[in-house]
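stuck on this one:
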Amino acid sequence: MKISLSIKIAVLVMITSFIGIITLSYVSYSQAEKIFIQNSKDRLNQKINQYTEFIKNQITSFKYDINTLSYNPLIKGLVRAYNDPYKYDPQDNKTYSQFIQDVISTFNIMLTQNKSYYQIRILDIKGNELIKLIKDKNKIISLKENSLQNKSNMKYFKETIKYPINKIYISEINLNREYGQIEFPIKPTIRIAKIIENNTKTGAIVIININITKAFDFEKLRKSPIKTYIANNEGYYIFNSTNPNKEFGFEFGKDFKITNDFPFIKELYNSTKDVISFIDTKQNKIYEAKKVYLSPDRFLVILQVANASLFKQKANDYFNTIAIYIFGSLIFITLITIISVKILTNPIKKLTETADKIAKTKGKKHIKIDIKSNDEIGELANAFQIMLNALTKSQKEIEHFAQNLEKEVEKKTKELQKINKNLQKMVEEKVNELREKDKALIQQSKMAAMGEMIGAIAHQWRQPLNALALNIQMLEDLAEDEHLDKETLKEFIKKNMETIKFMSNTIDDFRNFFRKDKEKTIFDIKDIIQNTLHLQRAQLKNHDIEVIENLESAKIEGYKNELMQAILNIISNAKDAIDERRKKEKIKGIIKISTKKDGDNVIIEIEDNGGGIDPHYLDKIFEPYFTTKEEGKGTGMGLYMVKEIIERNGGKIEVANTKEGAKFKIILKAKRD
């Protein structure tokens, strides 16, 4: 079904307008939501700041009261009299018993004036209670002497007695205990204590027990719509407005921690951070947490949670209202657009009809476009006429060009074929040249290894040859001295034959070492490493290099002599690296070789203390032609050949730096028994 351009443009305008209005509405909705949430967050921040300041002021008030008591002349006189052998204070001319009633009156006044204080005591330096006043249901009781207890085993006493004289002790918050049992009804308690000085020494301790339910106004917090949670410096709840059963769970062996319910709070415990703000958009909740220090080593974490769901409802009402206005605006815009577009598109319709005629004649017939309009459509009609004239001219030129194009293509094809043939020949020549170069370098690397081995044999033979020379000289001396009997001659032949056999075995090892394996065989990896070291040991010793072996027997199937060449190459490189490091610093050369079976694999590790490989070269050392040695001292094919040999034997090789040098790790498949 054909749809007119005016309808399409009208629909397009309607869609565009709809998207624009919806976008604008959503942006305003989002901004309103952010403003409200920020406002709620600011209010919550203000609330928690007010409450934390309230707690700080309460702590300051507690400190002031304990200071007042510690410097009170009556209490100081009582302590002086108590510590006097005759229970008498000559400074005030009073006895200890006379001071008791005066101090009780002082404590009575303080308990009466402070609703959260429920107990004031004086303890001597051994933890014995001297005076103890208790407030119970607004009735103040002074305990008799036979009801007083020893508190030397209590944590708050042990910590206070160690405090400096002028420092105020603030205890942890827990449930009050009497005679070792939790007191019921429970009293969440914080204790403020200070040492009373007696002649510059600790004379006694004054302690105030404070009910934090009253001191920190917990009942008011329970009635607030803002949920509040308070935990001590170990994370345990001391207040929970949604679940009071979790409060002081640690007193009953329960692991009720604020970090279990609100994991993001852990940041306050694990860092020096004092404030955390968190908005949960999914649950429409705002969290504000703050750390409040009671003393340098004790603090509380206060968390308050506000609900942001009220704004969501208001925002939805706002969105529903604006939707009605959007729908009405769209209908109005659509009608106006249809009428306007119909008037504007009449010339375009006429231009379309003309273009259809041109298409039917395939541009061969000249057609005049008769559209007069003083706007962009008029310009389009003029441009269309020019294009039509150019099209007719171009069609003639294309027909002429097509006739010559085929000949030109044929000519160029022949030229390309000729170039391609020459290029292929050049590539083959270069490839053959590179292959010959590789063969020469590999042969050179093998010859270098052979030279290394010949040098090793020379070191192996030096001592046996010296022994043979000495024995022959000794034989001559024996003959001259006429001590050459049959037994001496027999022993002489036996010793020298053993020496010659050792040298012959060395030749056999050398010959077998460079014999090319034609087929895979099964052999023990420990044996081939020991054979390789046998050939190298004298040379390594001559270079003052110690070899540490930790070899475990393990069977593998592969090309035995090739693997020995690979191991020889790695050991030779280690020797060169150690010699190079010795030029810069004095070290003892060490090469560690170990083998072990790991599941289906056999692991060979060769480690040296030659200073390691430049990290920039670690991923390049197995590439052909790459060498870190001076020019003329390395072909760059040694480790490349090692890698090729290991992979030909079905394994892989890795290299890494250690603190002292480099470690090569060879992984081969173990042969199952």
